[in-house]
Amino acid sequence: MSFNVAIDGPAGAGKSTIARAVAKKKGFIYVDTGAMYRAMALFMLREGVDPADAAAIADKCKEADITIQYVDGEQVVLLNGENVNAYLRTEEVGNMASTTSAQPAVRTKLVELQQALAAKSDVIMDGRDIGTVVLPHAQVKIYLTASSMVRAKRRYDELTAKGESCNLEKIRQDIEDRDYRDMHRETSPLKQAEDAVLVDTSDMTIEQVIDRIVALIG
Ligand code: C5P
Q1: Is 54 annotated as a binding residue?
Q2: What confidence score (pLDDT) does residue 42 get?
Q3: Which annotated residues bind ATP (predicted)?
Q4: Alpha-carbon distance 63 to 68, whole Å?
Q5: How does strand 74-79 pair with strand 82-83?
Q6: Where do the domains of the chain lie?
Q7: 180 alpha carbon to ligand 1 midpoint, in Å?
Q8: Could you tell me if 113 and 65 are in contact, meaning their C-beta atoms sit under 8 angstroms apart?
Q9: How large is the average pLDDT for residues 126-137?
Q10: Domain 29-121 has CATH 3.90.1140.10
Q11: What is the average pLDDT across 157-169?
Q12: Ligand 1 center to residue 97 CA distance, Å?
């Protein structure tokens, strides 16, 4: 049986950085489920689908074939055969993902893909509903969080380092809006699984968080 680690938490808590590092240390595959929802959102943006039109999202998602490949240990998302990794990490795609991911039709399709990956390999998978819905029997579950101000500041520093101009207050507002949508949607809302360990990273370094999680995995 494969060994599964589930990491859930709000936007910008550092899930992907931490999960990628822990996967490397433990020799697991890192599965970034947010990237799958982002690829679906990119498809909707390209198709000009209105984010407020739930029926159109549910209908259009049938035309999006999303698959995953691993190249040198890195997850590559293919959208109808095209490697779209380079287009996924923008604020526009992230915000659209938080709207389109609320659609049950979108979730059903991507959860199937996620469960198939976890069934055949040892994985560390991050997202919003991994411990609660996707992998309810994961051997280790972690709920990773940090205050919205700390998360906004990390994102601000990341964008500034890339030379992009941005506004800290606007980022914080976007993060809080996204958290609200993710936590209050009807299907698979973001919440801590009852058997998940809470790790608040507000006052922790990346190394401290990695060590904590590696210790939890054992
Ligand atoms: O984690 P990331 O910021 O890449 O996720 C983008 C969006 O995808 C989230 O705001 C959330 O709405 C959605 N998502 C989800 N379930 C997951 C992973 C991501 O609904 N398992």
Answers
A1: no
A2: 98
A3: 9-17
A4: 17
A5: antiparallel
A6: 1-9+128-218, 29-121
A7: 12
A8: no
A9: 98
A10: no
A11: 93
A12: 6
